[in-house]
Amino acid sequence: MDEKSSSETRGNPIRCRAAVSRKPGEPLVIEEVMVAPPMPHEVRIRIICTSLCHSDITFWKLKDFPGIFPRILGHEAIGVVESVGEDVDEVSEGDTVIPTFMPDCGDCVDCRSKKSNLCSKLPFKVSPWMPRHETSRFTDLKGEVLYHFLFVSSFSEYTVVDVAHVTKIDPSIAPNRACLLSCGVSTGVGAAWRTANVEKGSTVVIFGLGSIGLAVAEGARLCGATKIIGVDLNPDKFENGKKFGVTDFVNSGNCGDKSVSQVIDEMTDGGADYCFECVGMASLVHEAYACCRKGWGKTIVLGVDKPGAKLSLSSFEVLHSGKSLMGSLFGGLKAKSDIPILLKKYLDKELQLDEFVTHEVRFDDINKAFDLLIEGNCLRCVIWMDKQVSS
To answer: Where does the Alcohol dehydrogenase-like N-terminal domain lie (predicted)?
Structure first.
């Protein structure tokens, strides 16, 4: 739809287009929907562009809860505030904002601490509702409820997001780059920078060189790691990895009679300082922990495994090796303070974002973005809501 002035729409439902996922694994349907006004602590945003993340594809395929339909997916985006609800004072109409799936309320003990990004006031969960009121702001033209996704639902020309999930940014930054910090790149870079606190001169191993793994490499490079080893089944990913600082490559399907961890141990003379699991497989978490250096090594888990997956670590090894094992949601970043820092690094040409965008499509071609990511032909595909682009 054409951009409308806030004076025309404020306080009223907005009729606009959205890409609705109606059945698991089936192409999204672009249709007109109704987007309700924001309730207290909420903002309504006009989406400029959004990008596709593997998490969208994972939930798009799920036949059982937390898969739920009909739903508006999408959670990496940038937009402009169209209107605000009551008790919102940190952003105003016309502000450029990045929505994030992780909240940053700024008020609870966790958000006020430097030790955690896990808000206790609005704890993260995979919910089909808004976080405070547990209701939807979307309905189709028949009045049927459309479910939310990760508190963002950016595959819509307009969406409603809780203010705790919104970060105000400099409007001059290219939207097709800034949107990447809404999830994927922030998660990977943050895992190296904030969660692991990678030290200059250290050795890093990354299991899985998809977009998250490459973002970890970028973060490790920024932190000054001197040896960054990428592990993947696809040797073609090494060339791409070099752009983000990957110095060595291990083909996990071609290690002969040795395990991947044994190969890494030999390459690093006893194990890496930091190991990152970016695939979502318990077996790879075990391998990453095994090739982590005794005494001070850290293994960081970023990959999302299937529901119910378990780890089984040797109690003896945990006690005697002195290693650390930790998870990293959204890279340990506090969105409202850390995203502006990353954007400044991008403007200063320290952080690479351009290299992550391999394709751009129109909103009408959103299903093409799904095909590209599933086929492994892109890192990030940016979807423009109202711009004519060629992919």
So the answer is: 40-170
Given the DSSP bridges, would you call strands 227-232 and 248-251 parallel, antiparallel or unpaired? parallel
Residue 268 dihedral angles phi and psi, to the nearest 5°? -110, 5
- What does pTM read for this prediction? 0.94
From the CB of residue 257, how many other CB atoms can be counted at a distance below 10 Å?
A: 5
What is the tens place of the pLDDT at every residue in 232-280? Answer: 999 999 999 999 999 999 999 999 999 999 999 999 999 999 999 999 9
- DSSP class per residue in 160-204: EEEGGGEEE--TTS-HHHHGGGGTHHHHHHHIIIIIS-PPTT-EE
Please state, in angstroms and rounded to a whole number, the distance separating the CA atoms of residues 163 and 104: 9
Partnered with residue 42 across adjacent β-strands are 162
Buried b (16+ CB within 10 A) or exposed e, 87-110: ebeebeeebbbbbbbbbbbeebeb
Alpha-helix residue ranges (DSSP H) falling in 243-292? 260-268, 282-290
Using one digit for the tens of pLDDT, what is the confidence trace for 129-147? 999 999 999 999 999 999 9
**N- to C-terminal Cα separation, the chain:** 22
Measured distance CA(277)–CA(337) in Å, rounded = 26
DSSP-derived secondary structure letter, 17:
E
